[in-house]
Recover the amino acids of this structure.
């Protein structure tokens, strides 16, 4: 089974709220391309051993719109393709759209928290979502409500 590929936003955001280990608990090995590793390091995070930096075997940019995507997002999408259509964790709306257009299974950081609750790794989604928002993570009110509803938690803030 191919590892899940992650962009830097989920790694940095989950580390900031003390929930980075959820990725390991859910997915085991996480793969990141070199551009994501650099972004994570600039964000002040040292990658744990279960996050593997994987160089791209082919030249990146399979027609991905460079004006919409950052280098890390482009490389993460490319790496997911190289790993056989692996699941990819992306938060940027444009990157998520491009990933889906190319047939990848895309999840975001909020969905990671939902999956963690479903698998019994956390008791509730709301505290982690609220911690993300307090740390400056951008999440629309509609996504916030949808995740809480899916998790069976009260929608009111």
């Amino acid at each position: 089974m191919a590892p899940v590929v992650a962009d830097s936003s989920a790694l940095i955001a989950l580390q900031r709220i003390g929930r980075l280990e959820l990725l390991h608990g859910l997915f085991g090995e996480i793969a990141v391309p070199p551009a994501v590793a650099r972004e994570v390091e600039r964000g002040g995070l040292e990658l744990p051993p279960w996050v593997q930096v994987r160089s791209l075997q082919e030249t990146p940019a399979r027609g991905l719109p460079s004006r919409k995507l950052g280098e890390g997002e482009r490389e993460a999408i490319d790496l997911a393709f190289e790993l056989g259509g692996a699941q990819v964790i992306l938060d940027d709306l444009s990157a998520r759209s491009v990933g889906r257009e190319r047939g990848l299974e895309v999840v975001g950081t909020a969905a990671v928290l939902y999956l963690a609750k479903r698998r019994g790794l956390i008791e509730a989604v709301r505290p982690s979502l609220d911690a993300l928002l307090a740390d400056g993570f951008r999440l629309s009110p509609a996504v916030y409500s949808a995740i809480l509803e899916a998790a069976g938690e009260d929608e009111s803030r």
